[in-house]
Amino acid sequence: MTVCSAPGKVYLFGEHAVVYGEPAVPTAIERRATVTAEPRDDDHVRVEATDLSLDGFTVEYTGGTGDRPDVDVPTPLVEAAMGYVDAAVRQARAAADAPAAGFDITIESEIPLGAGLGSSAAVVVAGIDAATRALGKPLDRREIADRAYRAEFEVQDGQASRADTFCSTMGGAVRVEGDDCEPMDAPNLPFVIGFDGGAGNTGELVAGVRELKSTYRFADDTVAAIGDIVRTGEGLLGEAVPEADANRELLVELGELMDFNHGLLAALGVSARSLDAMVWAAREAGAHGAKLTGAGGGGCIVALDPTGEVETALSYTQGCEDAFQASLATEGVRVEEP
Ligand code: PMV
Q1: Is 164 an annotated catalytic residue?
Q2: Mutate which of 22, 117, 125, 202 to test ligand 1's pocket (most atoms within 8 Å of Cβ)?
Q3: Catalytic residue among 51, 86, 146, 164
Q4: What is the pLDDT of residues 45-57, one digit of tens each?
Q5: Domains, the chain
Q6: How does pLDDT run across 122-149, given as a tens digit for each residue?
């Protein structure tokens, strides 16, 4: 039995603009998905999943996701679990040259599904690492990240950047620009996350921004302006002492850039009333800055606050279902004790 875990992520800066070749800086957070893989004697895959957003279910299938099992949980969750696990298993089988390998897979996740925190990427990354190790063919990190990206790309019909999977694999802060992905030095940042209990539709939101860009010049300029914010932000991170706690001055400067970034995302039409309400509640409670994270439309915001006050304020904010602090996860995918 092999157990691996991988972290979720927030975008410090740059979502959406990254789709058009601008850089983005996602950072891993200490909320992890843990995947256990136990090889079987046959070619079946049995998946048992529990996460924050569901009570848990078990499915067993023999091949592709065509024959959907009859289980009593909401369809999108089963599809999500099966689609991503299936793609991860396919990648692990190909990497280990074991096309008929079967597994019992257990997933436990602390990351809400589809809410901009990279839950699917964490499951795919931990799944590929656990399954290849269970087959005696461990992969290096770059290959895990690449295979996880291919798995997400397949499940999401090509609507995937390398940001989530690379960040979850490497941990810490990373810089993504097209296919170019590199880890970055970064100090520990005091993230506070607000979750509205919902999720945005990444495909639709990305398509909406594309449409806006093809209609209005301002949308092109907005995407370019987000790129400028990312470049300024990475310059600030580069000057900080890696892995020490970020100092107040740095937090003030990063927070200001996060506020600008949120405003520009709102101009692109990807914010939502619930996200704006949480962003403003966080700012009014003293956050250095706050923005939506991920595709938007619903899901999560991320704020910078070392005091704990923003978490309390968010937990009393209408429309905020969950608020929690999350430090930067310096470790990406890793092996856990069974
Ligand atoms: O909501 P998430 O975590 O899937 O992030 C989507 C980020 C986008 O930039 C909007 C799309 C992408 O694939 O980079």
Answers
A1: yes
A2: 202
A3: 164
A4: 888 876 545 445 5
A5: 2-185 (3.30.230.10), 190-327 (3.30.70.890)
A6: 999 999 999 999 999 999 999 999 999 9
